[in-house]
Amino acid sequence: MKKYLIITISLIILLQSSIAQNIDLSGYVRNYSGMLVGNGSNDFVILQNTFNLNFEKNSSSNAFKVNPMIYTEYGDSLVFRLREAYIDFFFDNFDLRVGKQQIVWGKADGVFITDIVSPKNLFQFLLPDFDEIRQGVYGAKFDYYINDNTFEIVWLPVFSPTIYANPNSIWAVKPNFPMPPIYDYSNTDVNPSLENSEIFVKYSALTTFIDFEIMGGYMWDDDPTMFTSFVPDGSGGMNLLLSPEHKRITLGGGSFSTTLGPFVMRGEAAYYSGKYFNTTTPQFDNGVIQKDYIHYMLGTDFALWDVNISTQFIQKAVMDYDEIIKPTPLFKGEYNNMMTFLARYSMLNETLDLELFSYYDFEYDDALIRPRILYDYSDAVNLQFGANIFTGTEGLFGQYNKNDMIYFKIKYSF
Amino acid sequence: MTSKRFQIILMTLILTSAIYSFAQDKPSGLEIIQKVYDRPTGNDQDGELTMTLINKRGDERVRIIKQYIKDFGKEEKKIMFFVKPADVKNTSFMSWSYDEQGKDDDQWIYLPALKKVKRISSDSKNDYFMGSDFTYDDLGDRHPTSDSHKILREEKLDGEDCYVVESISKDEDYMYSRTITWIIRDKWIGLKKEFYDEDDDLLKTLSVKNFEKIKEYWIITHSVMHNVQKNHTTDMQLKKLKVDTGISSKKFSERMMKRGI
Questions:
Q1: Does B121 touch chain A (CB under 8 A)?
Q2: How far apart are CA A212 and CA A246, in angstroms?
């Protein structure tokens, strides 16, 4: 109750202050209802209302943005997220942004290859809009411009890991170990300090022939490595102890985008060095092995009979692969192949859109298929009806094969 | 007899001379369209574009765009920032167009929800712009040599002396079978344009409602496109127009697409 009061008072103060200072206000109110149909229960697993508010002010030399977002779920729970809160300083040839911010790199859609600065929030798996999947990160971003070239440095003193679904959620990832584990979280957190900072650099150019980015990063793995050991259970047996720990990884990569007649060709690749994988032998070497891997994408966008189509092929290849590596939904073997497909058709002067988006994983033969219809009832009100269909029995998508869902969203933008 | 022969020769000479003189004064269809294409509109422009989309029931939707255009000699750069409606606010669009015949435009769109500048193909010029009745091709400067032009007649329209020119695309796949344009003599402004579909039925009519002389340039500030087949109309007005203010070339960059107006 106290939390509601504080948030409400804070918002009222912000709103009054905004009106007084001519701060630009925008955002949306959204109602989102989702019903499970995959397990025969017809349960409403999503009954959510969202209030997204943007406070912005721009001038030629500086700007700021604050983006609070409030979710209310059924059962009256309330979640407050400050997605972004930053200040910009603009100079003749460089800009500086300080504060909590979302940073997006790369040319891939719906796949995270060099787009690794802002970690993911997977509280509803990959189903929310991508701006809701990305978390804001605390730090500073410096951009230096020479004509159409940009040099960018990002410094993050505070590490933010991937946020996973609550263990009771239908999106929870089930641990896959030979016996029920117990957990030791004592080494999980990364304390904010200069030594524990993350740093990313990027050079990008936008030219008449091609757009490209070259990047590098010295970062923490957003997903913790599960170090394993066995401890006595007090009754003569042994317990499997999992110690989640974030480890450093280094990566370098790049992306490009160009046009070839009616086709937009896109590509993106990154080399990850020092990634820890769990093994099938938890009793040895803390159940982990360190390997490098390559993650890349090739894709194209084009129009066919007024339907905008986008397709991507994505591969992850583990270097110096060892059969001891334990298969996971993300890495089944040495090579992991996936594709995405998007088709969108607009009609009635772009007031009605029909869309189909899907991921397909070749290794697990599983898929997520997402048809939806979007209708602009007016300039402010958008209606959306769609479905999330999971196929397969295992893998990133197949693990949720009981979570087929239909949903309805109403969004009022202002 | 000799006198009669002389009179005939004289008449023939006068007539030939008159026809020759008339032919010299009257430009060809291509020359007229070229003059429209070459009509100066300043080295740079910025203004606020308001598009009101009206469907057959009379329901209105409003799009407001802040746009900047600059001529760099052999290329023209344009950047647009979407102000309304709310769900596309802060979206921006940038295009670089080239004088070089056959060289495609470069185009990018910045989507604030994705925080990403995406290169898009300029091949889809037949697509409609933001749900309006204008295609990207209608809004752009179509090169005169892309079509064959023929003067149909000369007539008055809205009190202006006009050439009426028919243009047929050299590209068989072009979305219009032909267009007919009423062009004001001496001002070289297209006052009205009819667009015919693949079956040669009238598809759309563009009517210029207002044009102004800003500095020494004639600029169209209000036009209406009516799709007669769908009974859908787009009213487009250019407000707060400024010409030759010396817009910085830095305005036409990825940096500005992300930063906004």
A1: yes
A2: 30
A263 falls within a domain: yes
- Given a contact cutoff of 8 angstroms between Cβ atoms, the answer to whether A78 and A4 are in contact is yes
H or E stretch including B29? helix B29-38
Q: What whole-number distance in Å separates Cα of residue B140 and Cα of residue B246?
A: 22
Helix, strand, or coil (residue B123): coil
The residue ranges of every structural domain in chain B are 30-259
pLDDT tens string A275-332: 999 999 888 889 899 999 999 999 999 999 889 999 999 999 999 999 999 999 989 9
Q: Would you place residue A18 in the very low, low, confident or very high pLDDT band (cuts 50, 70, 90)?
A: low
The sign of the dihedral angle between the CA atoms of B169, B171, B172, B176 is negative
Q: Find which of A65, A206, A258 to mutate to test the B interface (most B CBs within 10 Å of its CB).
A: A206
Chain B touched by A151 (CB under 8 Å): no
Residue A171 lies in a domain: yes
ipTM, two decimals, is 0.89
Are B179 and B203 in contact by the 8 Å Cβ rule? The answer is: no
CA B51/CA B143 separation, integer angstroms: 25
Q: In this complex, which of B89, B132, B250 lies closest to A26 when CB atoms are compared?
A: B89
Residue B1 has pLDDT above 50, yes or no: no
A250 in any annotated domain: yes
Kindly report, residue by residue over B164-184, the tens digit of the pLDDT.
999 999 988 889 999 999 999
Q: In this model, does residue A248 exceed pLDDT 90?
A: yes
* Residue A10: inside a domain: no
> Residue B80's closest CA among B126, B38, B133, B139?
B139
Whether residue B72 lies within 8 A of chain A, CB to CB, comes out as no
Q: Identify the CATH number of the domain defined by range B30-259.
A: 2.50.20.10
Tokens of B154: 């000369």
Q: Are B124 and B137 in contact (CB under 8 A)?
A: no
Q: How many domains does chain A have?
A: 1
Decide if B85 and A411 are in contact by the 8 Å CB cutoff. Answer: no
C-alpha–C-alpha distance, residues A70 and A163, integer Å: 17
Which structural domain range is residue A361 located in? 23-413
Residue B224 CA to its chain's centroid (Å) = 12
Query: Which amino acid, residue B250?
Result: K
CATH number where A202 lies: 2.40.160.10
Q: Is the Cβ pair B113, A102 closer than 8 Å?
A: no
Which residues share a beta bridge with A326?
none
The verdict on a CB contact (< 8 Å) between B86 and A413 is: yes
Q: Which of B115, B226, B252, B253 best probes binding to A when mutated, by most A CB atoms within 10 angstroms? A: B115
Judged by a CB distance cut-off of 8 A, whether residue A59 touches chain B is no
Look up residue A172 and give its amino acid. Answer: A
Q: Find chain A residues with C-beta within 8 A of B128's C-beta.
A: 349-350
Distance from CA of B163 to the nearest CA of A (A): 33
